[in-house]
């Protein structure tokens, strides 16, 4: 069984209504390969993404990637892959359910 990737989709309702090309164009944010990535959450500024990453034989852990953002606070279209993802917690611990506070602090369960 393969893994999962994480995409961003900014809806352009005007283009959809006019049936113009480009109304729905997903942008790859995190390529996970053969591992499972889930529960993505963008930071309030839109420049960081926290998500759970589970290796095939392991347990879930929270990882974080950072991005360049456009004027609307969305990951900038056409940018290269985000910064190299980093583990947010202790490598020996299972970490779950990432979320961001309004002032940009990352919280998650650490078991």
Number of strands: 8
Q: What is the percentage of strand-forming residues?
A: 35-45%
Distance between the termini: 27 Å
Helix count, DSSP H or I runs of 4 or more residues = 1
H/E series: EHEEEEEEE
- The chain-level structural class is mainly beta
- Spatial order of the strands forming the largest sheet: 3-4-5-6
Helix content: under 10%
Low-confidence sequence ranges: none
Radius of gyration: 15 Å
Mean pLDDT: 80
What can you see in these coordinates?
With 111 residues, the protein is mainly β. Helices cover 5% and strands 36% of the residues. It has one helix and eight strands. The chain has one helix at residues 13-18; strands at 6-8, 27-30, 36-42, 48-54, 61-66, 86-87, 95-100, 106-110. The strands form three sheets. A four-stranded antiparallel β-sheet has the order 3-4-5-6, with no helix packed on it. It has a two-stranded antiparallel sheet with strand order 1-2. Strands 7-8 form a two-stranded antiparallel ribbon. A hairpin with a 5-residue loop joins strand 3 (36-42) and strand 4 (48-54). The longest helix has 6 residues, at 13-18. The protein is globular and about 50 Å long.
């Amino acid at each position: 069984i393969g893994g999962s990737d994480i995409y961003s989709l900014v809806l352009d309702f005007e283009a959809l209504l006019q049936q113009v090309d480009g109304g729905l164009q997903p942008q790859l944010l995190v390529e996970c390969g053969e591992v499972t990535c889930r529960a993505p959450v963008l930071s309030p500024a839109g420049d960081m993404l926290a998500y759970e990453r589970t290796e095939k034989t392991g347990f879930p852990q929270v990882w974080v990637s950072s991005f360049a953002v456009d004027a609307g606070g969305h990951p900038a279209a056409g940018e290269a892959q985000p910064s190299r993802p980093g583990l947010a917690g202790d490598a020996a611990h299972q970490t779950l359910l990432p979320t961001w506070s309004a002032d940009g602090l990352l919280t998650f369960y650490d078991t």
